[in-house]
Amino acid sequence: MKRQFEGSQHEEQAKHQKKSLEQRTVPQTNQHVSKSAMAAHVKTLSLQTHPYLYDRRNPFFRKPAEIGSFSIDINRTFYNDARQLAYYFPPKDCNRVNFDLGHGYDTFIKKLEDHRDRLDLILKWVQANRRKFKLNTGGSTQNERNSKPSSGQEVKHVGEQKYLQRDQGSNEKSGRCDETKTDQNKVEPEAKSCINQNEDNNLHTDFITWRGHLTKLLCTPYENRDGWIMAVSLFNGTYYMSEVETEEAKEQRLNMTDRQKEMTYWGHKFEQYVTSVDGKQEPNTEGAVNNCDGYCSVVRTRLNSHSLVFSGEVDCCQSLQNKSHYIELKTSREMDTDRQYRNFKRFKLIKWWAQSFLVGVPEIICGFRDDDGRVLRLERFETLRVPDLQKGERNSWNPNVSLNFCDEFLSFVKKVVDQDDPKVVYLFEWNATSRQVTYTITEEPEHVFLRDWYIDSIRNENPTQLSTGTAT
């Protein structure tokens, strides 16, 4: 059943969103403070995350528009181009393959896990592409102007969730630039919220982050094991969000068994079996595998009143003729029982869907393997149809719940983070025991993640004079 946002409906939803946020934001008297937030100032608000609180109609989510990309080489050097984009090279028969995922493990070139890039790579891309955040005379950013929806644009289905284009009367007064469809044949900018056209050092964007961080937020209502900590700093009107490794995650990483370490290699080896460096040559499966280099897409989208720019790594594109059709590559153990299939749909598919849905990757290719790490068949999943695969199952997940929680978490961040200072960090923490998001405030140097070179470039440089070439 197709749902459309009419003006009155959207206004009613906005009021409901504000009221529901107040209901879910509760005082927390005995707040847990993580070790990573030592010496931080403790606040007294928290956000509940139980799924039933967010089980309502789907929020507005604009189809992600790619506004750029970048590459990282084996030395983790940043390039403002697509040189690392790989091409899908499927086997002749996807139902009969024999990929040994353990082959070459002894030559695996692994990036240093103790070194965290935080947001550095995204900040380098922003620094090199500031003109894409500049407002045009109509009040929208350059990339929004280049991606205006056409008349009668299709609304794509994803179970009950859709990529929605804004309908008449649905513009929010958020102070960010967007474009609003006011009738079926005309697109007009939301000019009232973009009064000052000359603030070139303002990115006119609410949130900048990694796709992976948003994926964790979408999965949180249904997560029952792994907690997270998100560091947020407000700088020049934009909220920057960067994940902090929890003590539990660090302990797991440092105490992995040899078997677990090898299994982390399997996914990278699978990518080598089914991708080509240029779309013409067959995959080279004898070269050393590394997880240092990569290709990342940068997208802009909007979730209700929140404008977002984020980046996510892309495994490959479909072909030389269709470079914009991205594909996500996965591996998973072959399922032998009904219980294994139910767990696959309940716990794994939500992560696959969230990861690909957020950046608009339409297709997921999975290599199903045995316990020895041999892939015997490949299966294709259409991202927008993934939620349908688990409908009607006991304890199934609902994409509306995921998006509604993400929306309210971002609203919670805006409510809490009130110091516009890149050296002030708000640490938002969630764990499966309390099932509440709590936060602390710190200025400890170990938590500050916005680099001085980036801060200076935003404050001092004119975006029209920035180079769009290679940055290292």
Structure characterization notes:
This protein has 472 residues and is an alpha+beta fold. Helices cover 24% and strands 26% of the residues. The chain contains nine helices and 23 strands. Strands 1, 2, 3, 4, 5, 12, 13, 14, 16, 17, 22 and 23 form a twelve-stranded mixed beta sheet that branches. Helix 4 packs across helix 7 and helix 4 crosses helix 8.
Please write out the topology.
Blueprint: H1 7-24, E1 25-27, E2 41-42, E3 45-48, E4 65-72, E5 78-79, E6 87-88, E7 99-100, H2 120-128, H3 142-145, E8 156-158, E9 161-163, E10 179-183, E11 186-189, E12 207-210, H4 211-219, E13 228-235, E14 238-244, H5 247-254, H6 258-274, E15 275-276, E16 294-303, E17 306-313, E18 316-319, E19 322-333, H7 338-359, E20 363-369, E21 374-382, H8 399-416, E22 425-430, E23 436-442, H9 452-460
Parallel strand pairs: 12-14, 12-17, 19-20
Antiparallel strand pairs: 1-3, 2-23, 3-23, 4-5, 4-16, 6-15, 7-21, 8-9, 10-11, 13-14, 13-22, 16-17, 18-19, 20-21, 22-23
Helix pairs in contact: 4-7, 4-8
Helix content: 10-25%
Q: What is the strand content?
A: 25-35%
| N→C terminal distance | 49 Å
Contiguous low-pLDDT stretches (5 residues minimum) are 1-14, 27-40, 145-161, 165-198, 463-472
Kindly provide the radius of gyration, computed on alpha-carbon positions and rounded to a whole number of angstroms.
Answer: 22 Å
Question: How is the biggest beta sheet arranged?
Answer: 12 strands, mixed
Mean pLDDT: 82
The shape, in one word, is globular
- Total strand count, please? 23
Structure classification: alpha+beta
What count of helical segments does DSSP give?
Answer: 9
